[in-house]
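re the bet — no i am not wrong, look at it urself. input seq straight from the record:
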Amino acid sequence: MTNLLNQHVALALCFSLSLLLSRFQDLKAADEDPPIITSLQLSVAEDGNCTLIVDSREIAESHERDEEVEGKEIKLDFFGDANVTKLDNSRLNIVYDFAKLKDATQLIPSFLNEQAKKQIGQSLSIDEDEGVLVLTPDKTKKVNLPLPRMLRPPFSIRVDLLGHSEGMLQLTARPGGDLIGVSIHGKNTPEKSASVGDVNAFSRAANSKQFRSLLKVNHPKSECQEYQFKVDPDSIKSNSMIAIAYFGDLPFAVKQIEITGKFPPSFGINLKQIGNRIIAQQVYEGAAQEAGVRKGDVLVSVAGEKVSSVEDALKALSECELGKEVVLKVQRYGKEREIKVTPQ
């Protein structure tokens, strides 16, 4: 009789345990639903402190701005149909709203060679019905979009999405030969060591093949979280190329891209030094060439500031304001002349 009772108790316990296990598995399966990332923003300060904001709330909530951008709206042809606002300290706020922008090629940097431009162009399109930029991976299951202009810290880039839960999304900044990046992992991420919802930040020095981990967290669903990490401030002194990359099988949709920072002006002059003379070794298609600067001109001063080395000249040129006329004094055939250039 006792043995029979024990058997009944054991069966009851097994049944209860199976029910609990079944519920646990159901809960676990529900928990494995990935967070759908609807917005992210990376900010890099001059001292190397970085802030990453990852938002997995509903689109209406995550795309809402905390405050309006204060400044003067201006038009710079280089940014195409983007909305450009001039802020303090010569910084600019650039907004690419794909509900309004109809030409995806405006995002392709002009400094790339024709083959690279063609390759990127094949991966970009505008879905006018959804009002989004579509990034379509190639045969290697990836697409990389470098943004049109370099910039320098402090800067921030914000990307609003229709929703990211597949593959891997990366934001990278390349100051000089160094690399700073953040990765967000969804289902089927190509990174075998990453889990769904992982957010990683990393860096790599120009002279190294080793990646340094700066941050690793698992982002929750339906939340907006702010994460902090730090990079070597010396590694971000150079102008940075910003890029958005996506690795996966499915097309990827971007609602809006917003960039804030100081954009170094482009003159299109390659300088070299012979003795104490700074010579235009090459003048490329661009602002200086259009204004009349020629190959072989000796650069005497920039905006009234005399230059005596290539370093001085590059520093003076980089401190000019994008879209604002500057006077270059050059010497040609022994005669000095002033040329007004509007860097773009």
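see?? The chain has two domains: 37-262, 269-341. told u. also The longest helix spans residues 2-31. so pay up
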